[in-house]
């Protein structure tokens, strides 16, 4: 009798232990699944903000797409710190309209081995390999994943050390990018304005020169210089801007001076050298 009772007591002790262990494992499963749901929600929130975009039709096969929150805000600040401190920035001497001048911003160039060398404004930047900057390899992947049909093998980095730094009107129409390059531009740090302006219509300009006395052609040309011919947008920290189609052939772009600003902006443009 005494033995049995002991056995029962021991038995019910084990059962209690088993029950407690079961309840604990159940609680831990519930916690884990709650954590997973929160993580999944966060991931889907990030994904939908990454993919929300505004398309600007420039006409004649030129298009610009703006993703205001392509990167998570805090992750983008971590990347800003990395880029600011680990990229071997230089401020080269370039040639503009036949005159030598110091480029009004810092830059660096990264490219896949074997791609044709880039040359702009009489300057040929040294090409660093991707593997030297693992965060850039991750960004390349994120941009290729986020922009359907995109593929890149080179990256031009620019750092604007305050409002006096800028990039003047130009287009990235070097022949090594082909006639319709897709260029993806990521921005970090200080928000800066980005302007797009239609290139002058060569045919219309020559008609105007020939018939400078002809009022109607002069009026016609003025009419084409309306607001549809220019666009301004604020490129925010963590945003992505994609230029595609004939944007480089038909439009110029710039990031003008903003002398009252003294904060740093970093911009990365991913490109495909054909
Ligand atoms: O900084 C930017 O947003 C534009 C840079 C740019 O146009 C270029 O690197 O060609
Ligand atoms: Fe550009």
UniProtKB/TrEMBL annotation:
Gene3D superfamilies reported for this sequence: Alpha-ketoglutarate-dependent dioxygenase AlkB-like
Chain positions recorded as substrate binding sites: 97-99, 173
Residue ranges annotated for the Fe2OG dioxygenase domain, each copy included: 151-274
Single GO term (MF): broad specificity oxidative DNA demethylase activity
SUPFAM superfamilies the UniProt entry points to: Clavaminate synthase-like
PROSITE patterns: FE2OG_OXY
BP-aspect Gene Ontology terms: DNA alkylation repair
Binding residues for 2-oxoglutarate: 158, 160, 170, 253, 265, 269, 271
Region (Disordered): 1-53, 206-228
Classification via InterPro entries: AlkB-like, AlkB-like_sf, ALKBH2, Oxoglu/Fe-dep_dioxygenase_dom
Biased composition (Basic and acidic residues): 16-27
Pfam families hit by this protein: 2OG-FeII_Oxy_2 (PF13532)
Recorded coiled-coil stretches: none
Assigned protein family: Belongs to the alkB family.
Protein name per Swiss-Prot or TrEMBL: DNA oxidative demethylase ALKBH2
Species, as recorded: Spinacia oleracea (Spinach)
Organism placement in taxonomy: Eukaryota, Viridiplantae, Streptophyta, Embryophyta, Tracheophyta
